[in-house]
Design brief:
This protein is of the alpha/beta class. The chain is built from 24 helices and 48 strands. The strands form eleven sheets. An eight-stranded parallel beta barrel has the order 1-2-5-9-10-11-12-13, surrounded by four helices. Helix 3 runs parallel beside helix 4 and helix 12 runs antiparallel to helix 13. The longest helix is centred in the C-terminal third of the chain and has 21 residues. The radius of gyration is 35 Å and the shape is globular. The relative contact order is 0.06. The N terminus is likely disordered. Its EC number is 2.4.99.16. Homodimer. Pfam families: Alpha-amylase (PF00128), GLGE_C (PF21702), GlgE_dom_N_S (PF11896).
């Protein structure tokens, strides 16, 4: 009979499964264990679980060491047997009485050698050639068993499907299948089909820990509802957990168990809290051991957390902790929040939370503890031994207003007594903003100078531009009058800072009193002076409630001091009170700031979201994505390709212009001047009767189709970037509506776009300024172009690649970007300006977020090293973010034309490891390089024709690109253009460099051969000096390509590189 009493799971509710590894006792009316069963199930429910998992209660052989059955249709009942469905029906009813689902663990790849004919019909299983009990190579769990044939026999899937359907009718709500690799996907589909037709379909889960990538790939179409990670074997820091999650997610939603299903747990054993929280945090459901349901086990706390907020949805992002640092696991959560699980990998020592390392991965917002008690557990950004904490980044609104605050206050000329000089970071002394991302540490330094030997106090004042009050951080003296403080902005948009310094009366007094007291001098007068300073501070405080603690401290010290100058020497207790840190803090709070000097400039900071500093871009032409040769591709064809692109690790999909293409002067194949009726033309010739820059080429689809693409990309963890090309075809609607926006020649003809000697007959350019004598800006045109950007922003686009911005006026770009940022500070602009270096830098200063670079043409070690060092250090690093594209539709680099597959690997490694931003134009992964003879252009360029491809054709480098992007995602040092240090390689054909986060929480060494034809050897000295640890004698080196580990000591190491493997990558640490 069909069971109707089973609890129905809520949609998207995480499974919370308690594993009763030894099963549940009999519940027949005569059984003595009925009360014990009810008590167990009650405790499980009270701990927050919604399901209980048991091994299949079928008939096992005597002394069984595994779940392999003798008879899968019978269950033991005392000294006799009964149909297993009767046993399952009673257990499911008992579970349902506590609002629990019953789930059953099933394994049918093994059966007992004595299995019944109904369980193992002839020919289904094969026995070991010898008795396993006499073969020491076989585990005891294989003794006395037969194994399923490699090719499942006819009727196997149907037989098991029918059996499990009967169990479902008996009330079973789910199945966990051991060894799912024993059946191919089509057999699983056949087996599970009848279960899917049930009134209440059971959950069908696969136990997948330990399966290799090929085995997981074979299960993609099996139809499971969930698969399991290998969490029980994780060391709380290795990157493979996230890499495995990416593979598992392609099969089914991920679940996690705190231990192996067959792990032996005693009555007193408890699961490590780290394992429990990781299971719940990284998966869509978790399995806990029954031994953990009672405190101090973690189950109840974990289940309360799972029920308190929506489950995190994004893939787990693991930032591994090394050298005494905590591991941080990040996941996207509801309402644009990010959830963080902090784990201490060490069992016997505390671990620091390295926010410098993780900053590049955090969205805007406040970092808050996610459950009561975590704030205490963190203990000043440290985790206790074997500790863990759950936090979240609560979103904060972007900054939308420019600063309207009055200028800095000084005390007239007196304020100049203290000089403030050499502020850093600053771009052109504050004329342009320094760029950073949210949560990135901004370290401010300044020289502070004052006459005499009196002490200076100073503070850094910073705020978002729409905040009325300053946030403050004290500056600390470094050396040689250089002072420093830092802050971390939490919101996107404009910020500002200034430095203030003043004569520190109390610290000057404190120093003098301490020196004289230590020298044994008479300090009675000094004590009286101190009392006078305290009374003045008390008077200044007045009735300030915010300073009540400081006032109380001052009054307490005053009470202990003599009321007037006396002949009695002050006591040691009185001196200690005057020199105490508590009094120093109180006097600092109530300081009058005499001779205060404030920087005349408020130094601007522009704070971006993390994607401004790191991302992997993939460029494609939508019209070439059709699978059928000759058919014009659509946005739906692009949607079909998204999983493939995301699997390679790209997070930005960049589309060249998607607007209507003009007919007049349309270009033909290979930029020919004659186009046939079926030629598609250049997408940069924007505008036709179908519209202009705010319209879509009809052959690609509709606006609704585009919005569906944007949504689909977001579902795959990607953003869509659009090309903003201020170019018009002669058919653009603006030519009819606004002819004054264009340049006309004396004969009345249009001035076509030119880059002498090149001429673009299918494109005309707008004119930004009027003619003489006023040459006023054409404001209507400027606004129309701004409105084009805002139109696409309102339709979900937040990234724009701007075509040739250096050929348009700088004031226009500064105005347009400010206008857009005034409404949408999260919008990013990539400058495609292959031009003079100072112009590229100026474009960055006026507002461009990122920029193409000269990387494309840097091939030798010396020029590559020089360029990498230049753009990774201030001043350029403070405002210029390099984007390393390995190729573009316009640029087929000479190096790639002649270097073969090895050259593509070399350039991919240099780009992916050298900058936080890198990109490729589709076809690079296929090593496409056929040129127009003598030019850096592609033969049969996709700019002028359709170019369908086989994206998996032999010789591709997809796997290598995927691995490079995995390495980038797991290592914060690779998510920025900063932190690069060149390393001597002993070979001019090999480039070696280290990238490191501040504080060296993440250090990655990359060695790349620049020779695509011959083997090369580098000679490297382990960079022990980088870690600034005088006692360090060795480094732990993790090979990120082979997943092997080694210990590097002082000797020079020879690293051999070949055209087949022209690069090596290691993560370095002191202790691993």
């Amino acid at each position: 009979m069909a069971a109707t009493h089973r609890p129905v799971p809520a949609p998207h509710t995480p499974l919370r499964i308690c594993h009763a590894a030894q099963g549940l006792p009999d519940v027949t009316p005569a059984a003595a264990g009925a009360d014990a069963l009810e008590s167990r199930l009650t405790r499980i429910k009270q701990a927050g679980f919604d399901a209980v998992l048991i091994p299949a209660p079928w008939l096992l052989p005597a002394g069984a060491h595994s779940l392999a059955p003798v008879d899968a249709d019978l269950s033991a009942l005392g000294n006799r047997t009964e149909p297993i469905t009767q046993r399952l029906s009673r257990l499911s009813e008992a579970a349902a009485a506590q609002d629990l689902k019953l789930m059953v663990r099933v394994r049918f790849d093994r059966v007992s050698v004595d299995a019944s004919a109904g369980t193992a019909p002839p020919g289904w299983y094969r026995a070991h050639p010898e008795d396993p009990a006499r073969d020491p190579r076989l585990p005891v769990s294989d003794w006395g068993l037969m194994a399923l044939q490699d090719n499942p026999p006819a009727g196997f899937a149907a037989s098991w499907g029918a059996r499990l359907l009967r169990w479902t009718d008996a009330g079973v709500s789910g199945f966990l299948f051991d060894a799912p690799q024993c059946l191919p996907a089509h057999s699983w589909q056949e087996l599970l089909a009848p279960l899917r037709q049930h009134t209440v379909p059971p959950a069908c889960l696969a136990w997948t820990p330990g399966l290799n990538p090929q085995q997981l790939e074979a299960l993609r179409d099996a139809g499971f509802d969930g698969v399991f990670s290998s969490l029980p074997w994780w060391d709380y820091k290795s990157a493979w957990l996230a890499e495995e999650a990416a593979r598992l997610a392609r099969v089914a939603p991920i679940l996690a168990s705190v231990s192996a299903l067959d792990a032996v747990t005693g009555a007193g054993s408890r699961t490590d809290h780290r394992s429990a929280w990781t299971a719940a945090f990284t998966a869509r459901g978790w399995v806990a051991d029954e031994t953990d349901i009672d405190p101090p086990g973690p189950a109840e706390d974990v289940n309360q957390w799972l029920g308190a907020q929506p489950l995190p949805t994004g893939p787990p992002h693991v930032l591994a902790g090394r050298d005494g640092r905590a591991t941080l696991v990040l996941r996207d959560a509801a309402d644009d929040a990010t959830a963080i699980l902090a784990l201490n990998p060490a069992d016997a020592a505390p671990a620091l939370l390295d926010w410098d390392a993780v900053a590049s991965s955090l969205p805007a917002g406040d970092i808050l503890p996610h459950r009561e008690g975590d704030a205490v557990a963190l203990d000043a950004d440290a985790l206790p031994a074997a500790g863990c904490a759950v936090l979240s980044v609560a979103p904060m609104p972007p900054v939308r207003e420019s600063s309207r605050h009055p200028g800095p206050r000084t005390e007239g000329g007196a304020g100049l007594r203290i000089a403030i000089e050499s502020i850093s970071p600053a771009v052109d002394d504050g004329a342009h903003p320094v760029k950073c991302v949210v949560h990135e540490r901004i370290t401010v330094q300044a020289d502070l100078l004052m006459d005499g030997h009196d002490r200076i106090a100073a503070e850094l004042r910073w705020r978002a531009a729409d905040e009325p009050e300053w946030r403050r951080a004290p500056l600390r003296l470094l050396a040689n009058d250089r002072w420093q403080a830092s802050f971390r902005p939490r919101r996107i948009g404009p910020h500002e800072f200034q430095v203030a310094a003043w004569f520190d009366v109390w610290q000057t007094y404190h120093h003098d009193l301490d020196v004289k007291h230590q020298a044994g001098l008479d300090v009675r007068l000094e004590v009286a002076e101190g009392a006078q300073l305290l009374r003045e501070a008390d008077k200044r405080a007045g009735r300030q409630t915010s300073a009540s603690d400081s006032v109380a401290t001052i009054k307490r010290v005053l009470k202990a001091l003599p009321g007037a100058l006396t002949d009695a020497a002050p006591t040691d207790e009185q001196i200690a009170l005057l020199l105490g840190p508590e009094l120093a803090r109180a006097m600092h709070e109530l300081d009058a700031h005499p001779f205060e000097s404030v920087t005349a400039v408020r130094y601007p900071i522009w704070v971006d979201r993390p994607q401004a500093a790191h991302g992997a871009w993939y460029e494609l032409f939508p019209r070439s994505q059709a699978q059928e040769p000759g058919r014009h591709g659509t946005f739906d064809d692009v949607i079909e390709r998204l999983p493939d692109i995301r699997e390679m690790g790209f997070d930005v999909l960049y589309l060249p212009p998607i607007h209507p293409i003009g007919l007049r002067n349309r270009k033909g194949p290979n930029n020919s001047l004659t186009a046939g009726p079926d030629d598609v033309g250049s997408p940069y010739a924007i505008g036709s009767v179908d519209g202009g820059h705010d319209a879509i080429e009809p052959k690609l689809g509709t606006l609704e189709d585009f919005l569906r693409l944007v949504g689909a990309a977001q579902g795959h963890g990607m953003e869509v970037a659009l090309d903003f090309a201020i170019q018009c075809s002669p058919d653009h609607p603006w030519l009819q509506a606004h002819p004054d926006w264009f340049s006309w020649r004396p004969d009345g003809s249009l001035r076509y776009a030119e880059n002498p000697p090149k001429k673009y007959q299918d494109i005309v350019n707008v004119s930004f300024y009027g003619g003489p004598p006023r040459r006023a800006r054409k404001l209507a045109l400027w606004r129309a172009l701004r409105d084009v950007v805002l139109f696409w922003v309102e339709h979900g686009v937040r990234i724009f690649r701007v075509d040739n911005p250096h050929t348009k006026p700088l004031p226009f770009w500064q105005w347009l970007i400010a206008e857009v940022h005034g409404q949408h500070p999260d919008v990013l602009f990539l400058s495609e300006a292959f031009t003079r270096p100072k112009m590229m830098y100026r474009l960055a200063k006026v507002g461009f977020t990122q920029s193409y670079t000269y990387f494309t043409w840097r091939n030798d070690r010396a020029e590559l090293q020089s360029y990498l060092e230049e753009i990774s250090r201030p001043p350029p690093a403070d405002f210029f973010r390099p984007h390393f594209f390995v190729n573009t539709p316009d640029i087929n680099p000479l190096f790639l034309q002649t270097s073969g597959r090895a050259g593509f690997l070399i350039r991919a490694a240099l780009a992916a490891m050298g900058s936080g931003l890198w990109g490729m134009y589709s076809g690079f992964e296929l090593c496409e390089a056929a040129p127009v003879p003598g030019k850096e252009e592609y033969l049969d360029s996709e700019k002028y024709e359709l170019r369908p491809r086989d994206w998996h054709q032999p010789g591709n480098i997809r796997a290598e690109i995927t691995r490079l992007n995995q390495i980038r995602r797991a290592n914060p040092a690779l998510q920025t253009h900063r932190g690069l240090t060149a390393i001597p390689s002993g070979n001019d054909r090999v480039l070696a460099f280290v990238k490191a986060t501040p504080g060296l929480g993440n250090v990655v060494l990359t060695v790349v051969s620049l020779d695509p034809f011959h083997p090369q050897t580098a000679h490297l000295d382990p960079p022990l000096w980088l870690f600034a640890d005088p006692g360090a004698q060795q480094l732990a080196a993790e090979d990120l390509l082979t997943d092997s580990r080694d210990t590097w000591r002082g000797a020079t190491r020879a690293v051999t590189l070949s055209p087949d493997q022209p690069y090596r990558i290691w993560r370095l640490s002191l202790n691993g």
